């Protein structure tokens, strides 16, 4: 999940919603709804209505619910089909519709997805007027400029160092980063938009070039995430693609939020 929710996730409400959303039984409901072509988040509406009345007026909490369900579906290998399906029962006007079944990808397909990300981001943002490049959506979310800076810095200062560590060390410790804190301490909103875009393209190219030389043995090398989870390089790359997908979805949501506010 995008770390813009880190603070909310630690709150009492965030922990209670995570307990509601991320369970094996709940995933079965998400998968069944996906096979019926319905948004997976529909599965939690009944419980929200009866146990979490305050979420109806808390946009950040609703965004967290959608992001958490998305994390569960990506973790199980489902792919986003439509970002905005109608959700019955209130609380959510729209929710993401996921593939009926998990869709595993080869390492080559994962690299192709990583390589395609910069252009996908820039194509989405191409129609955004300069006056709104620093505009944030309601609730918790990045501006377009913050997305570009975050993706650039994550490749430079997190993704690429993690890959090198796995390739060069036996079971290295891998650590997460606080992207929301980076946005503040690195003053993303004050940076140049064009330079951030070119930096994102450059950083992603360097990451993909590093991964392209990884054979099956390299893909099977192991890192230890935060000291508690062992994962292969291939699994780490899968997580990178999922992170990209999260940003693409958030950029779509940003553009929808800004639609009508620029002309």
UniProtKB/TrEMBL annotation:
- Residue ranges of domain DinB-like in the record: 114-251
Which N-terminal stretch is annotated as signal sequence? Answer: none
Q: Which InterPro entries match?
A: DinB-like (IPR024775), DinB/YfiT-like (IPR034660)
The protein depicted here goes by the name: DinB family protein
Provenance organism: Vogesella margarita
Taxonomy of the source species? Bacteria, Pseudomonadati, Pseudomonadota, Betaproteobacteria, Neisseriales
């Amino acid at each position: 999940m995008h770390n813009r929710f880190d603070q909310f996730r630690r709150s009492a409400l965030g922990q209670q919603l995570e307990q509601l959303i991320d369970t094996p039984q709940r995933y079965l409901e998400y998968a069944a709804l996906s096979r019926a072509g319905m948004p997976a988040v529909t599965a939690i509406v009944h419980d929200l209505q009866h146990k979490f009345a305050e979420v109806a007026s808390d946009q950040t909490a609703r965004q967290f619910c959608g992001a958490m369900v998305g994390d569960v579906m990506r973790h199980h290998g489902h792919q986003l089909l439509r970002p905005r399906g109608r959700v019955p029962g209130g609380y959510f006007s729209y929710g993401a519709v996921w593939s009926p079944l998990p869709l595993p990808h080869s390492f080559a397909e994962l690299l192709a997805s990583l390589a395609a990300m910069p252009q996908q981001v820039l194509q989405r943002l191409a129609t955004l007027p300069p006056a709104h490049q620093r505009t944030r959506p309601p609730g918790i979310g990045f501006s377009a400029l913050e997305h570009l800076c975050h993706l650039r810095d994550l490749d430079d200062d997190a993704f690429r160092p993690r890959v090198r560590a796995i390739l060069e060390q036996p079971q290295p410790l891998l650590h997460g980063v606080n992207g929301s804190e980076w946005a503040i301490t690195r003053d993303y909103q004050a940076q140049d938009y064009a330079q951030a875009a070119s930096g994102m393209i450059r950083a992603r190219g360097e990451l993909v070039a590093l991964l392209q030389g990884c054979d099956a043995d390299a893909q099977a090398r192991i890192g230890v995430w935060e000291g508690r989870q062992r994962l292969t390089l291939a699994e780490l790359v899968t997580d990178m693609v999922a992170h990209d997908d999260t940003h693409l979805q958030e950029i779509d949501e940003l553009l929808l939020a800004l639609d009508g506010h620029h002309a």
